[in-house]
Protein: SMP-30/Gluconolaconase/LRE-like region
Amino acid sequence: MSYPLRPDFRLVFSDLRVSAAGLTRPECVLALETGELIAAHGAGGYTHWRPGGSPRHVLPADGNPRRYVPNGIALSTRGKVLFANLGSELGGIFSIDGNGAVEPVVETVDNAPMPPTNFVVEDGNGAIWFTVSTRMRPRARAWTRDVADGFIGVADAKGSRIVADGLGYTNEIAFSPDGKWLYVNETYAQKTSRFSLLPGPSLGPKEIVCQYEGADFPDGLCFDAFGGVWVTCVGSNRVIVVRPDGSTQIVLEDLDVEYTAYLASRYAARSLTPDDMATTGTSRLKSVSSLVFGGPDRRTAYLGCLLGDAVLTFESPIAGAPTTNWNRSLR
Structure:
C-alpha cells in the first residue's frame, strides 16, 4: 500500500487553532481515547482538559522542597501521570495523582542517581522507558554535535538499567506501530534514530533514520497509522514528516528566517547557548516540542511547546497511530 499523505500537504500558522490556553510550559501532550488531553505543567504537575473545556491544573501537594520540572509525561496503567523530572541537578521518574500526591518511581539507573531526565513512556508490559539527554552540567554544554553522552533506560522487575548509551542529546522516544522498533530523536546530533526491540527488554544496534541540518533540532516524535514519523523541531519551529521511504516533508513551519539562520550559525560554530534558545524570534509556534494525534478518529494533531502558554491543534488528512497512553484512564 502506498503512503497516503499527499507530498504537497502543507499547513500555515493560520490553519492552527487553540485547544487550551493559560498553560505553563506545555512541553508534552497526551491524547486519550475519551477525548481528554493532558499536558506537562512547568510548575511541577500537569494540566487536564477536554476540547472546549477549561483546563484544570494539578500541582504537587506534598510539600517536598525538591523542585519538579516535568518534561515528558505519560499515563500509567494505574491511572497516574508519570513525569520525567528535568530538574537542575537530579532527575528521575515520578508519579502524581489527581490530588497532587507525588511519589518517586525511578530514581536510580545502574545503581547511580538519575541525571536530569527528559522523557518517559510505559509500555504494554508495564516496563518504564526513559531518556536522559546528557550527563553534562550545565546541559547546554551538550548542545553540540561533539557530545554524545545521552542514553535510553528501562525500569522493570529486573531493575533500572541503561539499554542504549552514547546518544547525541537523547529526547523523545516512541514505539513503532508494528512493535518492532524504538525510535528516538537525538536533538543536538540532529538525528532521528531507531533500535530494534529485543527480548529482555533490550535494544539492537542503532540505525539512523534521518539526518537534519540548519536549525532543525528534532525534539518530539510520533507515528501516523501508516508508518510515517511526525517530528517537531525546536529552533526552526517546523513539523517534518519522515515518510516510510525515508524522504522528508515539511508539513508546518513558522520561521523567523533571520533568527533561524543565526541559530544555525551558532550551532555550526559550537557556541549555542541557553539565551539563544530562550526565544523563537518572531515565530508564533514558540519552540514546538511535541505532537500527538487525538480526536475520535485520531486525525486531530496537538502541539506542545517550550516557550508558549497554549496547545495548538490542526486537522491531519491521515490518522495517527494509537500511543501506549491512548486507551488508559486518568484516575
Observations:
- Residues 13-315 form a domain with the Neuraminidase fold (CATH 2.120.10.30).
- The chain has one domain: 13-315.
- The first strand starts at residue 17 and ends at 20.
